[in-house]
Amino acid sequence: xxxxxxxxRKVVEVLQGASSLPEGQVVVLFSASDLKNLDRERHDDxxxxxxxxxxxxxxxxxxxxx
Length: 66
Fold this sequence. Notes:
two-stranded antiparallel ribbon, 35% helix, 1 helix, alpha+beta
């Protein structure tokens, strides 16, 4: 899905791509920086959990193991 949007005061207009939006469904848009932060948080969570999966030791960072 690709959208081209324009904000005019408090209104957001869809300039292109409206037909690719699912009818009647709420769509949440994220900026590139938001997605990077969410991905970083997810990786941080995985890194904290990885040692417990490998050895049962939850106090090590997974980056130390690899």
